[in-house]
Amino acid sequence: MARYTDAVCKLCRREGQKLFLKGERCMGNKCAMENRAFPPGAHGKKATFRRKVSDFGMQLREKQKARRIYGVMERQFRRYFKEATRRKGLTGENLLSILESRLDNVVYRLGFADSRAQARQLVLHGHFEVNGRKTDVPSYLVEQGDVITVKTNSRGNTFFKERAQVLQTKSSPAWLGLEAVAMRGAVLGEPSREDIAIPLNEQLIVEYYSR
Q1: H/E element holding 130?
Q2: Exposed, middle or buried, 96 (CB in 10 Å: 0-12/13-18/19+)?
Q3: If DSSP codes are grouped into helix, strand and coil, which group holds residue 125?
Q4: pLDDT values of the chain reduced to their tens digit, one per residue, 211 residues
Q5: C-alpha angle 146-143-78 in degrees, rounded to nearest 5
Q6: What is the pTM for the complete model shown?
Q7: Which helix (H) or strand (E) holds 86?
Q8: Among 14, 56, 65, 123, fewest CB within 10 Å belongs to which?
Q9: CA gyration radius for the chain?
Q10: CA 159, CA 138: separation in Å to the nearest integer?
Q11: Where do the domains of the chain lie, and which CATH numbers do they carry?
Q12: Is 16 exposed, middle or buried (0-12, 13-18, 19+ CB in 10 A)?
């Protein structure tokens, strides 16, 4: 299973904005964007003074930003885009809806993890059940009516004991329902564009793949 293993702070610096890939760390002064808000590499500081970015460059950066936020590799991202074109409605919004429906993202949105990377690891380690069945595939796409639950055996772990307290103050998107005490969440519907509070211009992604 391919995944990015380099320093994720470089990704935020490359995109020129916080992508919140490390959870709470991104909120403090230890965040790399607070001290080195320029692209990584020997010529990173000079990149700020380069000429205007072309239309293709803007499209590419938006596509890369989406990939990095959701932790998806290029081949899989392209498959999601093809699926989005087959669905009714706007392709860009369909694409974001598919990405939001990934199990690792849902675990993150429900508040069971501080970041999507942490949620991915928790799913891979088999801590969650979907509709009563153990599911350890981060890319599993949930549907309306699905119920995501922390496994009974996992609730005794120190992490989930501490997480139970954090969940008391967490709020979930409108398309998800959270039962903090039961350590359970439900998919109430499909995520709409208004529910996805991510600074992305999905139309640029559509233009990139439509060249």
Answers
A1: strand 128-130
A2: buried
A3: coil
A4: 455 555 655 565 555 555 555 555 545 555 555 555 556 655 455 555 456 778 998 999 899 999 999 999 999 999 999 999 999 999 999 999 999 999 999 999 999 999 999 999 999 999 999 999 999 999 999 999 999 999 999 999 999 999 998 898 888 899 999 999 999 999 999 999 998 888 889 999 999 999 8
A5: 140
A6: 0.81
A7: helix 74-86
A8: 56
A9: 18
A10: 19
A11: 9-99+201-209 (1.10.1050.10), 103-187 (3.10.290.10)
A12: middle
Length in residues, the chain: 211
Tokens read off for 38: 């320029």
Cα 115 to Cα 167: distance, rounded to the nearest angstrom:
14
Residue with tokens 């501490």: 162
Contacts 24+ apart (CB under 8 A), 186-191: 186/145, 186/146, 186/147, 186/148, 187/106, 187/142, 187/143, 187/144, 187/145, 187/146, 187/147, 187/148, 188/144, 189/144, 190/97, 190/101, 190/144, 191/96, 191/97, 191/100, 191/101
Beta carbons within 10 angstroms of residue 22's beta carbon: 20
